Please model this.
Amino acid sequence: MNTSSPTAPRSIQIVPSVLPADFARLGEECAALEAAGVDRIQWDVMDGVFVPNLTFGPDVIAACRPHASVMFEAHLMVADPDPMLDAYVGAGCEMLIIHAESITHLHRTLSRVAELGAQAAVAINPSTPIDAVAHVLDLVDMVLVMTVNPGFGGQAYIATMEPKIAALQQLISVNGSAGASGAGIDIEVDGGISAETIGGAAAAGANVLVSGSALYRYEEGLAHGVADLRCRAEAAFRAE
Ligand code: DX5
Model:
């Protein structure tokens, strides 16, 4: 049993997915997201095998790295992440998110991410139980609970994931792990996060909230959207 060190309370983080961004101007789009007040940027890396879509290679991310100073996290929705870990860290991603479903030796892969000097996170799809991450909590700084089936933006939020988020928060609390960095373990959600759904996710225990299409839909602009989503999440967030 890990003995948890007292950690600071988890803060709300608003994280855009770049899927809805203008792919012809990704560097400028990253700068605009940072100016809008986002806490980090998520790159939805898709290989067309693990999910039926194809997106960003490390060179695209590397080209955008100079345009923003916020943390880049690579959400690796790929069939075999091991061969590409170095490339995405080298492209400037400070965090790599590994899907538990995508790798036979998850413990080894998460350990390798840390050896590369990046923060490690583990993601679970809607049908994957939280037990899949029970024995790697000491290797990660975040667990991502998917609230859509991955592959595309603009999908409907799966509200039945909320009890799963709450159960994960309980699992982390009982496990007592303070995570790989010793600062506690964040809970991230990704998929269908909007003004209407973010409160339920935060109330269940998620403090890192990824939004793509809903954030870009704010007629008042990205900064207003980030502020609105943050306000709604903070009002609802239930810490451990
Ligand atoms: C997995 C992708 C999407 C995206 C967010 O399909 O990772 O979840 O980031 O998309 P929205 O916010 O449009 O559902």
Remarks:
- The chain has one domain: 13-236.
- Helices lie at 26-35, 58-64, 85-90, 106-115, 162-175, 198-204, 213-217, 222-236.
